Each structure stands twice: as C-alpha cells, then as structure tokens.
Amino acid sequence: MGHSNVSQLFSRRSVFKDKGEDADLVRACREGDRQAFDILLSRHEKTVFNTALRMVADVDDAKDVTQTVFLKAFEHLDRFDAKYKFYSWIYRIAVNESVNLLNRRNRLGPLDERLASDWRGPAQTAQDSERHRRIQEAMMQIRPDYRSVIVLRHFMDCSYRDMSQILEVPEKTIKSRLYSARQRLREILGEQGLL
User: Fold this and answer.
1) What CATH number does residue 78 fall under?
2) pLDDT score for 103
3) What pTM, to 2 d.p., does this model score?
C-alpha cells in the first residue's frame, strides 16, 4: 500500500480542519479521536516521506517507510513525551525505520534517475541535473548515520537541538557526525571531479 493510502487507514478528515497544535492533536488522539491523528498525518506525511526518500533513495521503499512510521506512531502514541516536539519524535521514527530498511536490505541502492531529474524542478539545466544525480549517488555512498545528519540539517532544515532529539544523541555528537559526513561527501565529490 502506498503512502497516499496511509491516511485511509485512519478516519476521514477531521472537524479540526487542520487547526490546532500538534500537542493538542496528540492529546485528542489519546482520548480516542482518530480524526486528530489524520490531521497529524496530513501535516507530517510529506516531510516524513521526503526524509525517507533522501535516506533510502527509492520511491517505493520511502513509501513503505512512511506507512510504517505512521502505523508505529499511531500504535505507540502513548509513548510520546509531550515535553518534546511531535515532529522530532516522528522524524526519529522515520530515520530509524529508514536505517532499519537499509540494514535489512544490506545495500546502498542505486539512484532512481527520476529523483535526480526532479530534485530542483523542471527548469533545471542538463548540467545541473547531472550534478544533482552525482551528489545523490555520493549521498548513497556514505554511512546511514552520516546520511541522516546531512538529510536532517540540509534538506529538512533541522536545528542541532532538533537533530539531537530526533537521533537521541548529544548535540556535540551531532556536530561531530555532521562534520565527518561533510568531509566524506567532499572526498567522494572530489574524486568525481565535482569540487
């Protein structure tokens, strides 16, 4: 089942009409309002999918990860600690599920050509398309823990604090890991003549 079908697992659109803070929606979910979860899903589904896609570089795998993330979130909503942001919790599940999928498959999957060509939109030049394709290939050559910090920082615009909460490691470790990930990417891109 694709990620567009995930919302069908829950109820119809809520009477909340996409209003309310995530924390209020989580409270409503815990009180049995499945429509509130549907709003959470609609708010975060695209970002979770994009995070998974950047991690696994395969559209079908990213759809599977997205579905798994929201099913797990729904099943374990009672474990969510309201002192943290909901999106940090859901991103952490997305990153963990992406890494789990990569470990299960024991591969770094080939790049789907469609991902590279759509990366910056239809107006990009052939040269930009090739450069982006090669950058995505380089991303798939680095370790998943390095890839996750690159994705969260540069594609999802997460702060170090948010990254620390999502990955459950200290900010100092995040900064160190991000530095190492950037260095490794530079090496790979240098070998390809892109730097």
Assistant:
1) 1.10.1740.10
2) 79
3) 0.65
